[in-house]
From TrEMBL:
Region ranges (Disordered): 224-272, 287-310
InterPro entries tied to this protein: Acyl_CoA_acyltransferase (IPR016181), Glyas_Bleomycin-R_OHBP_Dase (IPR029068), GNAT_dom (IPR000182), N-acetyltransferase (IPR051531)
Natural source organism: Amycolatopsis methanolica 239
Biased composition (Low complexity): 231-240
Protein name: GCN5-related N-acetyltransferase
Ranges of residues in domain N-acetyltransferase: 11-169
Signal sequence bounds: none
Molecular function, one GO term: acyltransferase activity, transferring groups other than amino-acyl groups
Amino acid sequence: MTVPDLRTARLRLRGLEPADTEAIVRVFAGPDTSRFLAADLGDPDQCRASVERRLACTGPDGTGHWVVERDGDVIGLAHLRPSAELSGDLVEIGYFLDPAHGGQGLSTEAAAALPRHAFAALGLPAVWALVHESNVASRKLVHRLGFTDVGGGEHYGGPHRVFVALPTTLGQWHHVELWVPDLARAEESFGWLLAELGWQEHQRWRDGVSWKLGAGYLVVEQSRRSPPPRTAAARRASTTWRCTPARPNASTSSRKPRSRTAGARCSPTATRTPAALIITPRIWGTPTASNSNWSPNPRVSLDRVNQSLH
Ligand SMILES: CC(C)(COP(=O)(O)OP(=O)(O)OC[C@H]1O[C@@H](n2cnc3c(N)ncnc32)[C@H](O)[C@@H]1OP(=O)(O)O)[C@@H](O)C(=O)NCCC(=O)NCCS
């Protein structure tokens, strides 16, 4: 299991090692750090046993346990690993800070690095957090990080809220399709602008071309049912086709979208404006609330959360 170094403005998160054991015992010394846990990790022996379990834990590469360092000193512990409490291999986040360093936004800063890593490097569909009902600081922290409270239940021996964070790409655009009457003219008209803005030609085929920038891409395709008008007068009178794919999510890859051949419904329109369709990405993941023992938050549509995960 490889646990990569993660850096933030003030902190370094690095993989937990056996040599960190006594530093972790210091993080948990006193009643505060394990106040909301089932075990009293303020007891050094219980804490050492807990560190051993963490060191023995196996999970997918890139997940695991990190110590949180500030200026070379270990001041906390954090994890991102398959949940022992939520079924379905859901990945759960956790964080613990030496109270001597509390109230400076350090836990927020450390914890924020984990979903970032989970989404950007590991490509996980969601990150979960279980927070004790009475743990005000931790509830504020997950809210600040954009987690959504999706329910509540008994976890780790007490009442916990269940939070989930989704990749920030959710709801952002995935690609745009433009149907144009004259591909050559469309390229001449705005191809140069895309290049100026850093877009790169991605694919080209008989009736179309796509450009890519970051995660998004743009497809320009000449409608086969409306051949390019040959004269200016014909161009003015030209009909374009407004298309609605029958399977709007059929294409989630960066390959040329198949919507025109995947049951798309096309109808002629009187407008000369090219038809356009914006398709946002869907996030694919694992079953969520249905097989867990918590009750949904009535103020949040679990269907929406689940849909966004499938
Ligand atoms: C919860 C914990 C990680 C917060 O650490 P921290 O570094 O003090 O937190 P931050 O400074 O990043 O602040 C996080 C939020 O909690 C609030 N907060 C911090 N201490 C608080 C306290 N004692 N009471 C109420 N709110 C508090 C902060 O104001 C901040 O909220 P804001 O962003 O709305 O201002 C830390 O107290 C801790 O280790 N607790 C024990 C372990 C634990 O409960 N871990 C979470 C398991 S899910």
